[in-house]
Amino acid sequence: MNCLNKLVLCFFCLIFPVALNAQVHPNIMLSKANVPAVRKGVQNYPLLKTSYNKVKSEADKALKTIINVPQPKDGGGGATHEQHKKNYLAILNCGLAYQISGDQKYADYISKLLLTYAAEYEKWPLHPKRKEGHEGGKIFWQSLNDFVWQVYVIQGYDLVYDAISPSDRKTIETHLFLPMMKFFTVDCKPTFDKIHNHGTWNIAAVGMTGYVLNKPEYVQMAIKGSAKDGKTGYLAQIDQLFSPDGYYTEGPYYQRYALLPFVIFAKAIQNHQPELKIFQYRNQLLSKAISTCLQLTYTDGAFFPINDAIKDKTYESAELVYGVDLAYADIKAQPELLDVAQKQREVIVSDAGLKVATDIAQGKAKPFVYTPQLITDGPSGNEGGLGILRYGNNDDQQCLLFKAASQGMGHGHFDRLNILYYDNGVEVFPDYGAARFINIEAKKGGDYLPENKTWAKQTIAHNTLVVDQSSNFKANADAAQQQHPDILYFNADPNLQVISAKETNAYPGVEMLRTTALLKVKELEKSLLLDVFQVHSAKDHQYDLPFWYKGHLVDASFKLNGKTDNLKALGTKYGYEHLWLNSEERAASNGGYVTILNNKRFYTTHFTADSSLMVKVLSLGANDPDLNLLESKAFMLTAPKVKDQTFVSITEAHGQVNSVNETTTGASSTVSDLKLIYSDQNQVKLSFKVKGKIYSYQINYQNKEKFIQLN
Amino acid sequence: MNCLNKLVLCFFCLIFPVALNAQVHPNIMLSKANVPAVRKGVQNYPLLKTSYNKVKSEADKALKTIINVPQPKDGGGGATHEQHKKNYLAILNCGLAYQISGDQKYADYISKLLLTYAAEYEKWPLHPKRKEGHEGGKIFWQSLNDFVWQVYVIQGYDLVYDAISPSDRKTIETHLFLPMMKFFTVDCKPTFDKIHNHGTWNIAAVGMTGYVLNKPEYVQMAIKGSAKDGKTGYLAQIDQLFSPDGYYTEGPYYQRYALLPFVIFAKAIQNHQPELKIFQYRNQLLSKAISTCLQLTYTDGAFFPINDAIKDKTYESAELVYGVDLAYADIKAQPELLDVAQKQREVIVSDAGLKVATDIAQGKAKPFVYTPQLITDGPSGNEGGLGILRYGNNDDQQCLLFKAASQGMGHGHFDRLNILYYDNGVEVFPDYGAARFINIEAKKGGDYLPENKTWAKQTIAHNTLVVDQSSNFKANADAAQQQHPDILYFNADPNLQVISAKETNAYPGVEMLRTTALLKVKELEKSLLLDVFQVHSAKDHQYDLPFWYKGHLVDASFKLNGKTDNLKALGTKYGYEHLWLNSEERAASNGGYVTILNNKRFYTTHFTADSSLMVKVLSLGANDPDLNLLESKAFMLTAPKVKDQTFVSITEAHGQVNSVNETTTGASSTVSDLKLIYSDQNQVKLSFKVKGKIYSYQINYQNKEKFIQLN
């Protein structure tokens, strides 16, 4: 498309239809023409009925409270913070209750609440609890929350637009929404034009407000950036924030969060300017992003908690209710999405929610299928990625996440070639996630704790190699952001799933290669987790390979030698200052094993290497004056002073403890004789026995056709 | 009843009917006359059908294995141990499968297996892994397991009796059962005549074998003791092992275990000698014991883990399936028991199971009701007891267990006046239970660990007062067994449930009184846990009152001051050697608070006392070379040097964290201004505010009518 065409399209899309459609309200998630059908659906389809009842109950609860628009003063989790959050949710809930019930009282409540905001908003200065390095809001301590506030509120306003008197609308728009637009686009211009999730929320708020208030200028800025040149704005964000596989570089926790403004604004664009075909944009990128976000969960629905992530977050979160409903109704009606919607136990009370609830009621759902896959990172898909290996059904699945993605901006962790391992519904080798008690005022106002930086981000907090007790890139985020690992190989063959990647920049002069597989052998029901971590350097280094584990260590090939008193911190920086050294033993030269009992199943990790190893047992908690750190335990393989090193491990899931019946079966691993036979830059060769049968396993780095040979 | 009458009864009951009925097989859990009805029931009633399918599937699995009767050599959890356990279960399952299906192959399997045992048994010496202080078995490392083996096996044998040829029966009886009877009654005579759960298993095995083999002599010994004088034996055990409230002195975990031989043998007696009216014995004691056992669980079905207890044990365990089915079918058809049977998801394939499954299918079940109650201990009910306070429905119940029971023999812990607190489906102030990885061979053969003695039994491991860093009775079990606390008061008023008890022997010259309440005030939805621990002494002592907690400490009234390095053990003995001192702070003179976040709910414990307090934060793990101890955390109130001391605390459950929606409500406690106004040996008076309203709470030890006054 040449420039002239672009110009014509812009004119056509952004000016004319906006002016034309702007008179219709509501027209975002719920569109006027669909209201009668949704009203009927609320009577007939269980999921929509439940969802509406919840909305209505929340709306009724709001109506019983006194209008409360406090002068902003508290940080995250504090009283004024929570009150303003309550208010925006009340506005959206009341808007929906008004549309479905037709009861004017809900509209009146919104009108009254917004008039109160309109009477106050312009007087409020920048939030007193704003922090350096974070753009402050007016209602909340950071501008991000103000944007979120408006994304909800403008939807509620759109829903009751026709039920508010023109004069009240004028007051609300003149003294609340328009000053807010000025704040968002002028005062917060840096964020508005930033390719970042905070920017997406800002843009969505501004663009949707533009549609609802019939201000095409704002819509245009939102889609094309403040300079309207397409270098920033919504389309640029879709282009740059996601990989071709729909991966958002900050990781799943933030992907979920980032998705919401993307999909809500997309729906607003679709309704007001269908000719933009926004859901088709970049090869249906938004659909891919939603689907990838779902694949980035374990079978309990919890997102893989890489980078700064709150660990209890699942795909039941509101953002993915929006995502799944819209993906199904507006992009592609995949029946597997209905399974997720059922697990979410709610739909949006909306056009899309109606369709989802109807089709579920008609029995169209099919089980959601988790698929082993490689998800590339980077706008062009060439900046590393995430490998996901899965074995077994959703009710008892082994799952291995291999992180070879790029740094993921400010929320990224220094965890190149990190692995997370799940089985039996629980974490086996977990990731700490973020050090944060979200919304707990007493814990630093609910914000990231100091230990997020000193611990959670550091390499040692992850299941990956640490060189010389330091972190990747010496924990320098800017340096890390410049480099990414490279994917060497990926194979989703159900019986031999493999992911291999290389990282050469994290430690100067050190090349790291990791190849991890889920290998199903016929002797066993579950697959084996086979992990080869190879490191090359011209100089001597200390190599530490920790395995953070859940459960209790019940057996080892060596005598445990727990420190009985005077527990010491393991180091002084890069997270080592937070580790207690609980025990330390030299493993026999040919390796050894450690057995963990976790959720009534045993996990034995056999290990070996080409130099002799120390095995350290660690727990978290040193140098933690505020007792912020959560209980965490690891065993760690250490090669104290070597150049090249290959760590090999096989983790077998075995046996069962039934504590109700007091029976134990399969407490001993059936894997034995793990041997590293050969290892150089081209090849690694190892062998092991399973129930006496010998397996030989070879990695050929230079041969993509026969990357793995198994005999 | 005079002696002559007794003699007549004995003669009538024990000799004549046994001889008469012995020809009928089967006649224990499943009786011959009922077989057609059970066969039909297996087709018609879902719970019986599922249960039978499980039995049959296990039986079919057994039939596919090679007969394996290994020479006994391994301890608990080891291969021969587990194989002999498998064998007895196979025998019972095959016996049932034979009766229901009529298929001879199941009987043949049992016959073949028992003939193999008969060929081996007499050659086996005492078990090589037997331990000092434990009576060794022949099949298992302790005789107990041999008794259990036979309780199962004799039932299976009874089920296929008629399907085994007389000559094979003769071989089995002559070379297995009769030598075993000799072993049980002669070699294991000390246990046979011991008033103890091991004795019950022995007696049940012997008595049931007596019935099935038509050897009245053994039945008589079982019921009346080896001397047949009633001083020991089954009836003496019912008299002495249970309190009038049906409490078994070792605690719920062992009560569950002890119950099984009681109820199975009772059923055998009932079928062979109904005129003994065994289920009516001692005012329906067995029914009470089953009901009490159920009441000694939290709403998740897990037994209160006082004394040596494995914590995952619930009323789903096989023993209570037997107990509940028999209690319903043979003693009293309480519809609430059907609710428990439904939660157990199985019934015994038996006369009783048929009745339970039928009545469930007919919709007769009513919800099981947990009732606040005092359960007395001691054969006469005057040796202290357990107070259970409960507030709220089963789906979100606050529950307080107050332990003022007697020592409970060898498995008892030194935890006089201990409390356990539950809420929201989880432990809030837990009990460690036993230090044991049951059936995990690598952990001391699955037996109690050394830390059971050095840690789990010690006073400091519990939520009760420790004087001078020592344990109750200096951890001398024999001394402790001689003394019991006294219950001062109990009230089950729903809005003010109170338990109060006194212990004067645990520490010489120290009187301890504890009064704990669940108090519902109208300002709050949940009740408050109000705890007053008073201690009197003529001399100075150090008083430590730990609160072991689950969750994470998120707030405190004082600045936390976590030890950053060189973590030290808190003491050198009585369990203190296992504690790390994580932080230590002086609380302000008027007390303070600590807030824990546990399972998304906050628990704030406000505390005060009549002398200033230190608050220590502790974690478990010092002096644990084998890494046997489980993660555990406590905050502890310490009065370093005082004579009299009153510790007052109020724990409020409040607020909610929703990490899917990222919302937090009610993070701050609404209780304030806790004040200890007055305290002496007659009275304690305190006041506090809830949402600004002042409450005054007074304990009058000398006034049972007005023991608690609340204004």
UniProtKB/TrEMBL annotation, chains A, B:
Residue span, Heparinase II/III-like C-terminal domain: 377-583
Signal sequence annotation: 1-22
Pfam family, one: Hepar_II_III_C
Predominant localisation class: periplasm
Alginate lyase domain: residues covered: 67-295
Entries under InterPro entries matching the protein: Alginate_lyase_dom, Chondroitin_lyas, Hepar_II_III_C
GO molecular function: lyase activity
Keyword annotations of the record: Lyase, Periplasm, Signal
Subcellular location: Periplasm
An annotated GO cellular component: periplasmic space
Protein's name according to its UniProt entry: Alginate lyase
